[in-house]
């Protein structure tokens, strides 16, 4: 048995005094800063799996719309520029003003962790995504991200850079359709590689389409014409 005494070498005592742990030593990461600082906590890793998790999280939000009976089609495109463009014909992210957060519903979903309509049973009976974490995490880990929402006769657009809004939620047109389109470019500062695998994405989305009744998912690789 080893007895632990309270006598420490003088230099160690001095070091512990100079590195005193108090309230000033506590770091507060605001907004989506924490996601960029520790991405693996949210997407597993920053390698190939983590990169493709971004696609899955956005698609899962559309699948949740399908499970709620509000979406029948999802189009996923890897563009020639290497971005991913995901479009659904769901109800659309709410564009109205969120009084509690003093911003639009779109901005709440895209910039705040744990924000969404999936925490209770009112808006969604079932959910396959990260319950409101997915879209904001994708936004945080993207060099840029754009969101377009067709809702209540209007087309709304908002642009982001590394999770920070670059524009307001602008009305850019009129439409009779409903749905959401999100396009994003993964941040090369975060990921080991930002090149998507069409085969990997097509395989995962085939599974989702098979498991979700009444949902059609179309996948296209504009880089090769597949």
Key features of this structure:
Heat Shock Protein 90, 10 strands, globular, disordered N terminus, EC 5.6.2.2, isomerase, DNA binding, ATP binding, DNA topoisomerase (ATP-hydrolyzing)
Descriptive notes:
- This protein has one domain: Histidine kinase-like ATPase, C-terminal domain (Heat Shock Protein 90, 2-Layer Sandwich), CATH 3.30.565.10.
- The protein has seven helices and ten strands.
- The N and C termini lie far apart (69 Å).
- The longest helix has 20 residues, at 48-67.
- The protein is α+β, with helices and mostly antiparallel strands.
- Residues 1-6, 11-18 and 123-132 have low confidence and may be disordered.
- It is globular, with a radius of gyration of 22 Å.
- It holds the Pfam family HATPase_c.
- Keywords: ATP-binding, DNA-binding, Isomerase, Nucleotide-binding, Topoisomerase.
